[in-house]
Amino acid sequence: MKNNNDLINAAFIDNTTGKLYFTCSCLAIVILTIDLVTPLGIAAGVAYVAVVLVSLKSPENRFTLITATACTVFVLLGYWGSPLSDALKYQVVANRALSIFAIWVTAILALKQRNKDHQLHQQHLQILQSLRDAEIQNEKLKVLKSTMLTVQHITGNFLNNLQYFQLEIERNQTLSADSSSKLNELIEDTANRLNQLGNIKEIREKKMAGNMTGIDYENPQ
Description:
- This protein is 77% helix and 4% strand.
- The chain is built from five helices and two strands, in the order αααααββ.
- The protein has a two-stranded antiparallel ribbon with strand order 1-2.
């Protein structure tokens, strides 16, 4: 299923990229055609800036640089192929130079801004990931504290009950059969409680004595 989704995404990206290449090519050819029928001295080459801006839809910086290079070539082709006019030579050259300058300034500044935006986006993702990791770490620490409090509660009850048997041993130097049976039940009950705590599949909290939070291991869902 994952491979099919990857293939669909790849096909969609290729289709989108192909449409972008086609759009930029058609737009550049239209501008070149207009430039070739426009007399020299008119800065028709500035229109290639639009092609550069459209190329920015591609995630690859290389495509924008290639587009800017192609537009530069088209500006020169327009210089050689456009009909003559009464404009002075230096004005014609200056117009073409300004067109090339506008193309490359647009491409370079736009790519720098996009790279900056990408870096800011990556930093934002890193911050979100750090916050998520910190949240997970805090949750783990909270569960650990709750677990330790629950273990302390279970073992504390066990030790408190042992005092009863300790008093009997100190008084009679031994345990009666009934007390031995109760001690075995106490040990077995404590072990079962610890096993229940270790085998829970869902962490659910409950309030304990002293307004502390422990793990609800006695009522599994």
